């Protein structure tokens, strides 16, 4: 990869992914184990990131939180792609009233801030990490649908696509072999950035009490549970916040790197 930003983002994500995969072996304590008498203890040799409000090891909870955050971010984007890409493809290829209907629905959804739309969905589905993930996926559908539609509209009028259509190729062959491959570059770039966005928004939902519920070791929930001790024991919220920042930064840098590689302009 030629982009330094992309390489930096990839290294960050490889480190975080390895940490998440090896969580049972890297975490020094059970993330739910409590040491009440030592609650809010600052970082020490025994507990490098200190203890939280209930005396749980911050390092162990941050490590296990990487698993949840990556799972939520990747799954939410995949769900949004599975629904958004077909909608955008059909709208861009067929045109007419189908295009108008899909575009209108997507415009209405985009009129709401993503977080507010996700909160509305969570209120309907109920609190919880899984429902929060579904809400974030639903809120991101318009982004991928519109991006796919624009790509299909641009690619379907190119000469090689028109030539393939003239020789008798069917719609499925045209879409799968010639049109959709031309739309992949912006989609994969947006997907990388979208994963980071989903992780950040899930942290926001959990901070508000709408996402992961106690005692789940999720970064946003850890911030919410420790916000009352931000001045007395700042380490409780500092390290989960840094984990969120580094993960989102990694996905953003990787997305920028992919854009630089596949679109030199």
Count of DSSP H/I helices: 11
H and E order:
HHHHHHHHHHH
What kind of sheet is the major sheet?
A: none
Inertia-based shape: elongated
CATH topology name: MetI-like fold
Q: Give me the count of strands.
A: 0
In terms of quaternary structure, the protein is single chain
Q: Work out the strand percent.
A: under 5%
CATH homology group: MetI-like
Helix proportion: over 70%
Keywords:
11 helices, mainly alpha, 265 residues, elongated
Task: Provide a concise account of the structure shown.
With 265 residues, this protein is mainly alpha-helical. It has helices at residues 4-21, 23-26, 58-94, 96-110, 114-125, 129-155, 159-166, 171-179, 184-207, 219-226, 235-262. It has a single domain, classed as MetI-like (MetI-like fold).
Topology readout:
Layout: H1 4-21, H2 23-26, H3 58-94, H4 96-110, H5 114-125, H6 129-155, H7 159-166, H8 171-179, H9 184-207, H10 219-226, H11 235-262
Describe the structure.
This protein is mainly α. It has a single domain (4-20, 57-262), classed as MetI-like fold (Orthogonal Bundle). 72% of the residues lie in helices and 0% in strands. It contains eleven helices and no strands. It has helices at 4-21, 23-26, 58-94, 96-110, 114-125, 129-155, 159-166, 171-179, 184-207, 219-226, 235-262. The radius of gyration is 22 Å and the shape is elongated. The two termini are 16 Å apart. The model has no long low-confidence stretch (mean pLDDT 88).
């Amino acid at each position: 990869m030629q982009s330094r930003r992309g390489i930096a983002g990839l290294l960050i994500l490889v480190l975080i992914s390895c940490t998440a995969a090896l969580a049972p072996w890297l975490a020094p304590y059970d993330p739910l184990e409590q040491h009440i008498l030592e609650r809010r203890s600052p970082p020490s040799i025994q507990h490098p990131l200190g203890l939280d409000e209930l005396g749980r090891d911050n390092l162990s909870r941050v490590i296990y939180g990487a698993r949840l955050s990556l799972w939520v971010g990747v799954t939410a984007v995949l769900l949004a792609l599975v629904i958004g890409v077909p909608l955008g493809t059909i709208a861009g290829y067929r045109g007419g009233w189908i295009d108008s209907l899909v575009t209108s629905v997507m415009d209405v959804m985009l009129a709401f801030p993503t977080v507010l739309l996700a909160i509305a969905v969570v209120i309907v589905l109920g609190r919880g990490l899984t429902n929060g993930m579904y809400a974030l996926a639903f809120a991101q559908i318009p982004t991928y649908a519109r991006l796919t539609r624009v790509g299909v509209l641009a690619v379907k009028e190119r000469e090689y696509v028109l030539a393939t259509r003239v020789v008798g190729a069917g719609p499925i062959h045209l879409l799968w072999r010639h049109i959709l491959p031309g739309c992949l570059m912006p989609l994969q770039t947006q997907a990388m950035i979208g994963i980071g966005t989903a992780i950040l928004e899930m942290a926001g939902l959990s901070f508000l009490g709408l996402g992961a519920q106690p005692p789940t070791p999720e970064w946003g929930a850890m911030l919410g549970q420790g916000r009352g001790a931000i001045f007395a024991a700042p380490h409780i919220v500092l390290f989960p916040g840094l984990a969120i920042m580094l993960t989102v930064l990694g996905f953003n840098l990787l997305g920028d790197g992919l854009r630089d590689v596949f679109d030199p302009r």
